[in-house]
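Appendix B. One record, verbatim.
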Amino acid sequence: MCIRDSYLYCSLGGYDGFFPQKPGLAILDLSNPSSPEVTDIWDTIIFDQGAAIAISDGEFAYLGAMDDGVILLNVNNKNDIKFISSILPDPDFPEVAGIFSSPNARGLSLYGSDKLMVANDAGGLRMIDISDKENPVEIGKYVNMGIEDIAQSAYNNIVIVDHYAYIPVDMLSLIHISEPTRPY
């Protein structure tokens, strides 16, 4: 969930791995805090693992749709959410996906105006070029192999400050991200 201006963007749909749940987004107008109003709700049956997180820049919203990757939505009109596209980051990084190692998009953060960082549980950190919202592209990925050699790590959240990503990965990792083509 995130707040932008006077709007609250909430992810919808849970995840338990066994029962399908539609991912969705609700937008609430908080301009009158004592009486918030739902402006629109969007969901879909195309994906079936719910949504772990929603973030927005006010014009677009991004849903972390668990093992379905990231869903991009146009929220410029708060009363009419529109699907734009989705992207499934490489599911076989850092290892081939299996019943206990399916990457799940759980944490999201914008990096500048054209990059989306994804904390991909069991799948490391991903950098997505979102300059073309209809065709997002994975341009970078990282996993701390020191942790992976011990046990599968969980990348569940991300906070970006300047060119650094702070990621709790069963402990905190700090990664410099200003050069996406450099293998970090």
